Structure formats: C-alpha cells, structure tokens
C-alpha cells in the first residue's frame, strides 16, 4: 500500500505542475516500498533524507521562479515551505533520538501538506504566473 495516494484535490489543472507533483508522490511511495522490504538496503534514515532532499529541491526551484517573477506572496509561500520542511525534520529528529518512526505521522504530514498547499499556495502561484 502506498504511503500517499494521489487525490483529485491535489490537481491544480496545470499539466506540468500536476505531473511534477505526481512524480514527487511516486518517489515518496517508491522509497517507502523499498523501506518496507528488509533486504532492500533502504534505511529509515536514507528514506527520510531522500524525501527531505527531493522536497527541498522542489521548493528551491519554486522559490527561484517566485523571485524571478517578483511574486507578491513570496514570503508567505516560502514560509509554508519552511513549515513543511520543519515538520519532516521533526520526524527525522524523533527517529534519530529514539529510533521511533511513525509512518502514519509522516503520511498525515505529507498528505495534509499536499492537499492544502497545492490547493492554496501553488494554485495561486500558478494562476499568477499565467
């Protein structure tokens, strides 16, 4: 079972952006599948680190685009990115501190972010850029 299911409310109606977001969800689910296989060589640390790195890279690209287009809600959008990265970092820290990994906590964090961030922040950004 995937960690995150694509939901229709994730779609912005912008083909390229929807595709990139689907790829991010697929990556998260692929890493999670490997994590569930004991002999896959994927550790919890690697799994969380890879997710953090990929999401950080996606955010950096979005933020670069926002700066280039002098986006009027850059600060708010960037703050939402930072909030999600902080939440993922908290999950990583909890694992490092006591080897506790709650896949349901991670799934809830990411699913809520995908739903709310896509529908609000990303939808407005992409409308602005059109």
Could you explain how this protein is built, in words?
- With 130 residues, this protein is mainly alpha-helical.
- It has a single domain, classed as Up-down Bundle (Four Helix Bundle (Hemerythrin (Met), subunit A)).
- It contains four helices and no strands.
- The model has no long low-confidence stretch (mean pLDDT 84).
Question: Which keywords apply here?
Answer:
mainly alpha; 75% helix; 130 residues; globular
Radius of gyration: 15 Å
H/E series: HHHH
| CATH T-level topology | Four Helix Bundle (Hemerythrin (Met), subunit A)
Number of strands: 0
- As residue ranges, the low-confidence spans are none
- What do the pLDDT scores average to? 84
Shape-level CATH architecture: Up-down Bundle
Distance between the termini: 36 Å
User: Please, how many domains?
Assistant: 1
Number of helices: 4
Q: Roughly how much helix do the residues carry, as a percent range? A: over 70%
Helix/strand class? mainly alpha
CATH class: Mainly Alpha
Strand content: under 5%
Short synopsis of the structure:
By secondary structure, the chain is mostly helical. It contains 4 helices and no strands.
Topology summary:
Layout: H1 15-35, H2 44-68, H3 74-98, H4 103-129
Helix pairs in contact: 1-2, 2-3, 3-4
């Amino acid at each position: 079972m995937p960690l995150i299911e694509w939901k229709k409310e994730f779609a912005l109606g912008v083909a390229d952006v929807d595709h990139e977001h689907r790829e991010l969800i697929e990556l998260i689910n692929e890493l999670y599948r490997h994590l569930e296989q004991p002999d896959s060589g994927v550790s919890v640390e690697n799994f969380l680190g890879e997710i953090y790195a990929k999401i950080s890279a996606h955010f950096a690209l979005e933020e670069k685009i926002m700066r280039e287009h002098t986006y009027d809600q850059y600060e708010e959008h960037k703050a939402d990115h930072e909030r999600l990265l902080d939440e993922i970092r908290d999950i990583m820290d909890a694992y490092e501190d006591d080897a506790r990994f709650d896949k349901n906590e991670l799934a809830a964090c990411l699913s809520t972010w995908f739903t709310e961030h896509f529908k609000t922040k990303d939808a407005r950004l992409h409308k602005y850029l059109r």
